[in-house]
Design brief:
Number of helices: 6
Helix content: 40-55%
Number of strands: 4
Distance between the termini: 36 Å
Largest sheet: 4 strands, mixed
Structural class: alpha+beta
Length: 185
């Protein structure tokens, strides 16, 4: 992951109101997160906490743009978990590892019948909640033309997400995969 610079802006009086609104939205968006599936037991307590923190953060970012919160869906979470494990095993960050199908096929193989699909991936050597929050912040604050992660985060077509965080103690990295989608009807 290449560090990205952010533009410093002057603080405005209404910025406090916006921050308060974002905090409230983050709190309320937590209500839209489904109960973790039984497979969440495969995730450590730290990984579950990191994933939940990022989902709340991501939904707050979407709310700032008038977008509905994303709902966590088991099939997408399973797809994301499988991909994090594959990246950790290879110690390579890629949307498609050798011998692995592309993200759209992986999402379908996990049982998600999508009409829209997208994926964000990242890693950090800071294996803390602060480390994964930095990854999410960098993706959200991307600037065109290199803003593919941001476009996924703010895509109005996406309704669901599978968000996985994997702590890789072998390579001392935290891997994060966000699989986005909308179901076909």
């Amino acid at each position: 992951m290449t560090p990205l610079s952010t533009d410093a802006t002057a603080t405005r009086p209404r910025r406090r109101t916006v921050r308060a609104a974002v905090a409230l939205i983050a709190l309320v968006s937590g209500l839209f997160v489904s109960t973790p599936p039984a497979s969440a037991a495969l995730m450590s307590t730290l990984e579950q906490s990191m994933s939940h923190t990022i989902l709340v953060m991501l939904n707050a970012e979407r709310a700032l743009h008038g977008l509905r919160p994303l709902t966590s869906v088991y099939a997408l979470q399973l797809s994301a978990r499988r991909h994090d494990k594959a990246m950790a095993a290879a110690n390579v960050m890629s949307h498609q590892l050798p011998g692995e199908p592309n993200f759209a096929v992986r999402i379908s193989n996990a049982g998600y019948n999508w009409c829209w699909a997208g994926e964000n991936i990242a890693w950090n050597s800071d294996m803390t909640i602060t480390g994964v929050k930095l990854l999410q912040s960098l993706m959200y604050n991307e600037k065109a033309p290199n803003n593919g992660h941001r476009l996924n985060i703010l895509n109005p077509h996406f309704k669901n997400i599978g968000l996985d965080v994997l702590t890789d103690w072998t390579h001392h990295k935290v891997w994060m995969t966000e699989d986005f989608g909308s179901l076909t009807y």
